Structure formats: structure tokens, C-alpha cells
Amino acid sequence: GASSLGYASNRAGLESLLRFKPEGKLTLMHIADCHAQLLPIYFREPSVNIGIGGAKGHPPHLVGHDFLNYFGFESGGIEAYAYTMLDYIKLAHELGPVGGFAHLATLVKAIRQERGADNCILLDSGDTWQGSYSAMMTKGADMIEACNLLGVEGMTPHWEFTYGAEQVKANIAKLNFPFLAHNVVDSEWEEKVFEPYHIYEKAGTKVAVIGQAFPYTPIANPRRMFPKWSMGIQEQGVQEQVNAAREEGAQVVVLLSHNGMDVDLKLASRVTGIDVILGGHTHDAIPKPSQVKNAEGTTLVCNSGSNGKYLSRMDLDVADGRLKGWNYRLIPVVSNLIPADAEMAALIERVRQPYLQEINTVVGKTDSLLYRRGNFNGTYDDLICQALNSQLESEVSLSPGFRWGASLLPGQDITMDSIYTQTAITYPNTYRRQMSGEQIKTILEDVADNLFNPDPYRQQGGDMVRVGGLRYRIKLGETIGKRLHDIEIGGKKMEAAKAYWVSGWASMGEVDGPPIWDVVRKHVEDKKVISIEPDTTTMGVTES
Amino acid sequence: LGGSVVVPQSAMAADLDKVKANIKEHMGSGDYQESDTVKIDAPIIAENGAMVPVKITVDHPMDTDNYIQSIGVFVDNNPTPFAGVYAMGPANGKAYVSARLKIGKTSQVRAVAMTNTGKLIGTSKEVKVTIGGCGG
Amino acid sequence: MADVGKAKIKMPSSVNAGDVVSVKAMVRHPMETGNRKDKKTGEKIPAHYIEDVTAVFNGTQVFAAKWGAAVSQDPFLEFYLKVDKPGDLTLTWKDNKGGVFTKSASVKVK
Lengths: 544, 136, 110
Ligand SMILES: [Mn+2]
Ligand SMILES: [Mn+2]
Prior knowledge:
Bound molecules: manganese (II) ion
InterPro entries (chain C): Ig-like_fold, Ig_E-set, SoxZ, SoxZ_dom
Mean pLDDT of chain C: 95
Organism (chain C): Magnetococcus marinus (strain ATCC BAA-1437 / JCM 17883 / MC-1)
Low-confidence stretches of chain B: 1-11
Distance between the termini of chain B: 12 Å
Largest interface: A-B, 58 and 28 residues
Pfam family, one (chain C): SoxZ
Oligomer: heterotrimer
Shape of chain C: elongated
Domain Sulphur oxidation protein SoxZ (chain C): 10-105
Order of helices and strands of chain B: HEEEEEEEE
Protein name (chain C): Sulfur compound chelating protein SoxZ
Strand content of chain B: 35-45%
Largest sheet of chain B: 5 strands, mixed
Number of strands of chain C: 8
CATH topology of chain C: Immunoglobulin-like
Number of strands of chain B: 8
Low-confidence stretches of chain C: none
Number of domains of chain C: 1
CATH architecture of chain C: Sandwich
Number of helices of chain B: 1
């Protein structure tokens, strides 16, 4: 809960979070990738976020002190806590948890009050319906209620699709706002499945918002759940939508994107006529928009972080049908500084109530900081991989490089709620099977190429597959088949022709092992107290 | 990550002699001039290697005396690269064809167009076939 | 596979004279390459695929395809047609086992 540690809510704290130099009349608000985190949580940002080729050293590929220096923030403050992993445990104790829809609602209401609701548009880049036990059990219905109450005015999807095509359609019927995705077509006749864009009349301005769903959903998640939907970046399609919206009289064009930030940056340099990209998927929290030049102008690219930690506010000055000025702030939702909105708090209590017995179950305790973010294994991933190897008696375990999942501080209880924030998906079953060393290498190489390919359009977001019982060196600048080196299994050099027992979860194919949360639960119950050293799986990360 | 049972092989160099022989068999000559008027719209990464949508457009007039008369499609790394040849003309108004192809492993997809004077122009684009499975 | 040869055509039913319109067509067909093995018996599944497609508009061939085994199951085809006069478009698919399948669509001119 919000009152457990450190600061109490206070007016000065709230005012500092809302401080903003207004610009023009129109305000865009944006959230992304909340992953169904209705309550405040802890979320440690990555210590490794490698940029390949031209992306190296530029946002979003900055962490820690490099991040603070680039954006001009001091160590030890609210920004350092929100945006980096520096002094994480100390600052977490001092500043408390982040996010939570009741705290977010207070900020949204305050901005609508200041600017006038008719001048504001609140948009959501998706990954909203998945990531908690209650969201999984209600198939996203709890999040739809919360988003309707928050007053979200448009969204675009990714994990939403994993409830299956029929459920997605049923859920859309319950939304008070448009579900936008120009880049989803039925695979039979190649016709659009969803509303491609919506035109809002706000602050006397016609604002077009084009939805760009996660282009690689049918590759990154099981296609069998939406077998007749085809996606893709569809750069030319984006241009067509921009042109159509301008023709319809749009004075401001926004791309509400779930591309991931590197893809957004490339797209902004090639498609003309977009004023602002509000993006998500790669969970990058970037405090200043990247100004990307293209053949006809400049596009502002904003990515608003994840897990309910941030609210983006962008004020726009539109005159003579053109963008004249702007101001932006990515507001960290430091929950203890923000009073909870009573109406939203009541809704959250109501939607979670049926599941309290399950989610409040304490299964153990952690002595270590447990987190997931980072290009390679986080400590919560290590816990999952260790659970797989011990419970399924395998030599190697594989766990997906998701970027969602709340952190736990040393000394905190491990509840089922926590385990579900790391594992609640609609294809949770585990598998155990034999694979040759060669097959294992092929999988690692394939995933590495989907992450570290120098062409952003060939990157799928997420992080390197997490491994247990296996160590490797990786050369990021190489090509597919040549990145992984010196792979060891159980401390010995991996043999290409030898068969190894491998376990994992979140398989693209249908498998029938116990769900991952049961596996992790049994392991934690056996161990009682969890202690994990940070990343021991990568023996070296180099460019060549 | 998938951990699928079927593990596609990583990209391998194609047997270009075989590709060339296939082009020669269906287009009359194995050599074509690289041209940016031929455009291949295909996914960078295939969602399903058994059914990859491939659209080919040639920016070329379709007049009675100046038109594209055929477009051939080849997948370098398939056991048989030939994937189809399409006959067209002024009656189509637009030099275009769309089809869906089986692409077993990461490969160049090649489109070769023949003008009514018998000139061959073409281009190629890589389509990646992946295991997939991670996500943010 | 049930319904082999069942076909569909999607094109506008009414156009302005001179319009260039999209014609989409699909036919149910296994498009077996002859290289696959039956998972249960281990025996090769015989090749069964469409080799030729023709599109005839008002008695004149306007488009044709020659296919290899790389074309996907239930093959899809899209091409454009310049419509000057009303009429019927007939597509005919022929497979390597002698199967012949046809489907027609009419277009009016406003
Ligand atoms: Mn996400
Ligand atoms: Mn995502």
C-alpha cells in the first residue's frame, strides 16, 4: 500500500509534480504499458540498455549516470529514482512505491481542471489489459473499467490481443473510447479490422490520432490466438493514414504507437506529416521528446515508460492550422506524494476483492532486490529460471525477456500477487523437452537477432531470453548465427550434438506442463527465503 | 521465446546458379537489370512462413505499346525457387500482382518483370523467418 | 481437405468506365508440394497443386498465372483490371491432377 514507507502525501510534493509552463490551448496526456498495475508498486529501471549501431549513446539507450547527465538531472532526487536504477533500494525506501491508477487519476483530474477537459486528450499506447491476476481472471475487464473511469480517450493494442480475437472484440464493445489500429488486417482479404484513426475536436483544433498496434504481435505472441489477423510496421500505410487525416482537415496528427522507441525514431525520419508520436512497448521513460527531422518537417517522439510510473503531458500551441510551440513533461507518479482519487480507489478495491485470498497469499520472502528490466537476466528472471530447473528437473531453463513485472525490495514478502505480476499471461504452461546443443544455440541466436539487429525495423522489443543453468558470451555487432560464444551448460562447454533437458514457459506452440506461477510458487515455498546474486549468466558482452 | 519444436535454420547462402536457372526457365534469360521501379511489398519478418503475403508493383506505363507483360517471383532459399509467373498487359491498367508464398527459411524474394519489348528488370528483398516469442 | 476448388472473387460490382479496380480471388486447395511426409504413416504426400490460373473478361484473357509449389495453401491472387465496359470476369484454376475450378463475377458500369 501507499502508506507503508517514507513520505506521506503532501501538497508541496503534489505541486512539484504538477509544475508545468503551459503552452497554447491543447494538451495531450499519455500513458503506456501499465500492464494492469492498478496499485502502486516498485519498479527498478534497467542498468543495461544497449543501443546498436547509430542508436548507441542516444535515448533510449542511456542508463544510470549517463541518463542523468544527458537530461541534466541530479543524483538522489525524484528523477533519479524514477528514471534510473541508481541507489535504487535506498531511494525506494525514502520515496516509496510508484504508479497506481488512483494516484494517476488525481494527476489527470488536476491537469483537466487546469486546462479544461475540452482542451485535453488522454491517450493510452496499450499493454493495459495484461499483467495482473485480476486482469487475467477478468480477461481485461477490470482494466477497461479503470480506463473508462480515468477517462482514456483512445488506445492501441499489443498484449490485449492475447485474450484472443473474440474476446478482444467483446472488450472493445465495453470501451468508452476508440480502439485504434490501422496496421491490423484480416489475413483473408487484407482489409482493416479496426478503426485506423479518430479525429478529435479539442481546443478548437482538429486532432487526428492514428493507432499503430505492435507490428510483431503475431511473431512475439502466439498467432493461434488471433489466427486471422495480420500486422506489420506498414510504413507506407502510416503515410496513407496521415495523408487521409490531413485531407479530412486534421491540423495536428498524432501517431499513438506500440512500435517500441527505436522503431518510432526510424519511422519518424521516413514518414512525413506526423506532429507527435506517443509511443510504448519498449518501456522507455524519456523525459524530453526526441526531435526527428524528415523530408518535410520535424516529428516529436515521446515514450512514456511503463507500469503506471509516469504520465506524459504535452501542451501544444496550434495556430493557422500548424504547430507553433510545445512544452512537455514526463511526470513521475510518485504515489506517496499524490493523494489517491477516492472514486478510482473504490473501483480498484472492488475489482480486486474477489481475488484477494489468492493474491494476498504469502509464499516466502526475499533477501535480494528482485527485478526484471535489463537486456540480460534480471534477478526475478533468475528466480523463475531456478524454479524451472529445480521443479522440472532440467539442465537448462528458458524464460522470455519480457519488460513488465513489478520489483520486490529486500525484506519484502513474496506474495502470489507479486508472482502474477511477473507471469500472468494466457499461455503460462511450462514444457520440458530434450534439445540438442545446436538447437539451443539456434534459439539464442534467433532471439538475439530480433533484439540486436542494427535495423530498428527488424527489432521486436523486449530483452534477451533469460537462461538458467547456461552461460554465454555475446558479440552484439555480429550477424545471426555468430553472436553467441563459449556457451556453457552446468559449467561445461555445450556440445552441439548432445541432448540436454530444457524447460521453459510462454511457448509459441501449445504445451501442457503446469503453469509457471505454480512452478515458481512451489520453488519459493521450498526455499522459504530467496537470495539471488545479480546476473551471472552473461560472461561478457562485447561488440565484436 | 518460443522453444517451438520446429527450429528454422539460420540464413544460408542460396544456390544462386539454381535461382538463375529458374529465372531463365520462366523469363527467357537468367539476367535482369536491377531497377527501383520494381517494388516488393513483403514483411521484413514473416508472421507465418507457410503464408507470406508478397505484393509486387512495377512503376511502368500499361499502354498499348508500352507495358509490362509478365512478372516472375522467385524465393532463393526454397528447394525450388520458382514461385510463380504472371502474364498481364494494358487490360490491367496497373503492373501489379499479389500472392501468398511458402518461405521455409530466411530468404531473398526476387521479382523480375518483362516489358513488352522483352527487357528484364527486377529487384529482391529479404524476408526473415524466425522462431519469435519474446516481447515488451 | 473438404471443399477443394471452392472459390471466391472480390471486386466492385459497379464502377465508372475506365476505372482500374482491384480483383481479389481465392480458391480452396491444399497446394501440396510433393515433398512433405505424412506424420503418421511416414509416407510422402503426393504432389497436388494448381499449375495454371486464367482470368477472362468478356471473352478475352486479361491475366494469367503459372504457379509453382511455393504458392501457399488456399491460394490468394490479386491483380488490377481496367474496366471500360460492363461484363463478366471468369477465373479458372487448373491443378496437376486434372482438377478444373471456375468462378465468375459481374461488373456494371455506372
Ligand atoms: Mn509493454
Ligand atoms: Mn508491448
